[in-house]
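Re: Re: token formats

Sure, here are both.
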Amino acid sequence: MFCLTSCLKEKTVPIASTTDGCFEQSYTYNIRPIIETSCKTQAGIGCHDAWIDEYTPIASYISSGVWYTEIFVDKTMPVMPNIWGIDSLSDAELTVMQCWIDQGYPEFD
């Protein structure tokens, strides 16, 4: 396993290659860190902070199609620009998230 980092952002995207060209991902080890740095606002300020750290509500949003639409189609998550200093998702983060969804969005490795 190796990690991608950027000198411009405080983000680390863990990536483990598989033979199918995608990456083995899990919510706990790969997706939650992306959510914490790119979707979560300062404690108590954001409207979705009460559920954003939990796998079950996120899995529900994915199964309903809302998550995919907001991130990949409408590109409204995270909302840009925003007052919290949260950056948009990088191409590497989008790839990790797409692979995770394609793999059935597992919770753990």
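Second one below.
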Amino acid sequence: MAGNTQRFIVPAQLAEQIPHHDMSRASEELGPAYFYMSNSLVPEADIYASGRHVKQVPVDFKPHIEPHKHQVSKVYIILGDLTVELILDGEKHEFSGPAGIFIPAGMMHTIRPLRGSGYITTVMRSGKYE
């Protein structure tokens, strides 16, 4: 029985373009990324959620995300046997999942998978890139 709330349940949409990300190369080398929620999927949504299933990180995978910041805070969730490199305000960190990362609003950051397989999920309030 569909009612007024049916519009809040949406299928994932292939993420073909994200500012500061080389999506075509990352999709080719890592696998596709998807938007699970955004105001383009549900106009009332003030949350952005995306994710990628990384089947296997290629040897010497080059960064595909330029350092950038947001006007809102952000959370990365790393699941599986996936090791990533995270740079926060110029400090480099390497760690494996499962893990969560909180990035305060206005903090420069970038992330890249280094090895293994798993999932990278992003959740943040809707906002602008800088």
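Helices lie at 23-30. The chain has a mean pLDDT of 89.
- S.
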